[in-house]
Design a protein that fits this description.
The structure holds 2 protein chains of 2 kinds. By secondary structure, chain A is mainly α. The chains are: A mainly alpha, B mainly alpha.
């Protein structure tokens, strides 16, 4: 008997299409109007870009294995969004410095995560969760109730608007696609990528084959932090306003997106293409729940159940008797 | 350190008590002691359950959400003007819910062999959503005479919490002396070796999640009686604090080392540290940051000590 097998990224894309068609059948869905359907699809893809970028760092730390995860990314997104907002203050020429600042601050927080995990042997989950608390605390101190700032026109132009009135494709989609290619190069065509998969499979053998495991862990968490910082920069460009809970709603979906894309939560195997497909599925799912006017409680339950089903499919570990 | 894994917790407790005593000279008066201990008790109960799971090599991220479910059930079903009978009925229901939630976690982790962290993280969302579904907005509560029962019962002029902690440690001492107690250490230390020596590894793992679910339900009942009111987010912050208490208490996150007594001391210590923070009159804006930094410092200290031990 031949088993039909489709790779997880393809399965995720199929799931996205099914979910999208289903959302059209809702009473307040797009129905048979193809124009609205296309606009809605483009909007979903646009929103997926933000989750996709935030989930990129998550993909790296999860591939690095040994229960690798980054729970501080939501707080980092909020922090860098606020920093961007304040630094830019509506001036186009301040956009690049703000972007660099976001990347550096994110990388620094990620570096601390990596240091706690590799030197102090704190488990990634606990380390990054407590780091999320520290960053949230820092946000409250910095924020002091309210901040004043403004997004620059060029950010809105590049992040929140289509390429041109004639071409309705959102610019941020192009940015995301280029970003995806860079992630593919990083994972598949560089020494870093090779070593990342190696430490995800087995750190002892990786070390014996000459991989600097500690350096890799530090670099991976720092990179994940920087990518979350980039996510914060993009998110504020889209929303145009900041609030203290801006990044938190991205955290759980970012982990689920990685899982949907077929990246093993135990590490050593995965791809960013999968995560991109996963980000689309998760964005569709959340927008579907919003369209159905589900309360926050139901949304949380659905997200939790989704992840539970996913890890039941992909995440089973070896039995002791094997 | 290795022979006395809880030593760090005791030293920290002594320091915290001393600083607290300087800020609050009547700390050891029985009323003050009671008003402190009744606040600490929910975390102590939660930590004891978390310690058992961690000891057996797992981790339970959903305990805080179970606390929230129990609080939401009691606050909506009993109500501020409810009868004592209704309260005790729903206390039983709450305990069953805790056991059920724990069994659900245990089924996925032990029988389907999923990673504990990510599984219980997923169920924590499920449970937190459920709590919010039962009680969408803070409100409701339990009758104040029943809350008062928890707040001001002082047998022999000692805080009620002392007796509950004594029972808790007594039960743990008994469990540790049984075959099941040995199994916990075996499964947490070397599951493969435990399996090969006929330890029912899967069943033991499953049971630890049921225990932590049950303890989370007890913690939920305690915190509801303490506050007297309902809030579906009440347990959210307790998970990380309980894990921190376990780590301070010398029970390693890798499993197989430590016990329950150390983590209980760790939980009491964290309680006194919270007290110090509120007495130090820190600017409200800074409170979250200071608390988070203390958690990080507490989590980092055992690692820093180990770092120096390896250098020697």
């Amino acid at each position: 008997m031949k088993r039909i097998s489709i790779s997880p990224p393809v399965a995720a894309l199929l799931l996205a299409v099914i979910l999208f068609v289903l959302s059209g059948l809702l009473p307040n869905g797009f129905g048979s109007d193809l124009g609205i359907a296309r606009a809605q699809a483009l909007n979903i893809l646009r929103l997926s870009a933000f989750l996709g970028v935030i989930a990129a760092g998550q993909t790296l730390v999860i591939i690095s294995g040994y229960e690798g995860i980054d729970l501080s990314s939501g707080a980092v997104v909020t922090l860098t969004a606020i920093l961007t907002y304040v630094v830019v203050s509506g001036a186009n020429e301040k956009v690049i410095p703000a972007l660099l600042l976001s990347l550096v601050v994110g990388a620094l927080i990620g570096f601390f995560n990596g240091a706690g995990i590799s030197y102090l042997k704190i488990s990634p989950f606990v380390m990054t969760l407590s780091m999320a608390g520290v960053v949230t605390g820092a946000i409250i101190v910095l924020n002091h109730g309210n901040v004043s700032g403004k997004v620059a026109p060029i950010m809105t132009r590049l992040i929140a608007r289509p390429i041109s009135p004639g071409i309705p494709i959102p610019t941020v989609l192009v940015i995301w696609l280029l970003f995806g290619i860079l992630m593919w190069v990083l994972l598949e065509r560089t020494v870093y990528g090779k070593n990342l998969f190696a430490i995800g499979v087995n750190r002892v053998t990786a070390k014996l084959s000459g991989v600097n495991v500690t350096g890799m862990v530090l670099a991976t968490y720092a990179l994940a932090g920087a990518l979350a910082g980039f996510g914060g920069f993009l998110v504020v460009g889209n929303t145009g306003v900041v609030m203290i809970q801006l990044g938190q709603p991205f955290l759980f979906p970012s982990i689920a997106a990685v899982a949907v894309g077929g990246t093993l939560l135990s590490g050593g195997k995965g791809s960013y293409w999968g995560t991109m497909a996963g980000a689309i599925v998760l964005t569709l799912l959340t927008s579907l729940l919003t369209t159905m006017q589900m309360p926050d409680s139901v949304r949380r339950m659905v997200l939790g159940a989704t992840l539970l089903v996913l890890i039941s499919i992909y995440g089973r570990q070896r039995a002791l008797r094997q | 350190m290795m022979r006395f894994p809880a030593l760090f917790a005791w030293i920290l407790l002594a320091v915290a008590l001393f600083v607290n005593f300087l800020l609050q000279p009547n700390l050891f008066a029985s009323d003050t002691l009671n008003s402190n201990m009744r606040v600490f008790l929910p975390l102590i109960l939660l930590t004891a359950g978390e310690a058992v799971v961690i000891l057996a090599g797992g981790i339970d991220i959903s305990v805080g959400a179970i606390v929230s479910i129990v609080n939401a059930i009691l606050a909506t079903r009993v109500g501020l003007s409810g009868s004592p009978e209704a309260m005790w009925q729903y206390v039983i229901v709450a305990l069953l819910v805790g056991v059920l939630a724990g069994a659900f976690n245990g089924f996925f982790v032990a029988y389907l062999r999923l990673q504990p962290i990510i599984t219980t993280y997923a169920t924590s969302f499920l449970y937190a959503g459920l709590a919010l579904f039962i009680l969408p907005n803070p409100g409701g509560g339990i009758p104040s005479p029943i809350a008062e029962l928890y707040r001001s019962t002082m047998p022999l002029k000692l805080p009620l919490a002392f007796f509950i902690i004594a029972i808790l440690l007594g039960v743990w001492a008994y469990i540790r002396s049984t075959r099941y107690g040995n199994y916990l250490y075996a499964v947490g230390g070397k599951p493969q070796a435990a399996y090969e020596t006929a330890v029912p590894v899967t069943l033991v793992q499953f049971s630890t999640y049921v225990i932590s679910g049950l303890m989370a339900a007890f913690a939920g009942i305690a915190i509801t009686m303490l506050s007297g009111s309902g809030n579906a987010e009440i347990g959210a912050a307790m998970t990380l604090t309980s894990i921190t208490a376990v780590v301070i208490g010398g029970t390693a996150l890798s499993g197989g080392v430590g016990g329950v007594a150390g983590p209980v001391v760790g939980a009491i210590t964290l309680g006194f540290i919270q007290n110090i923070i509120s007495f130090a009159r820190i600017d409200t804006w800074w409170e979250t940051l200071v608390k988070a930094l203390i958690i990080v410092a507490a989590l980092a200290t055992p690692g820093i000590i180990n770092l120096f031990r390896r250098r020697e």
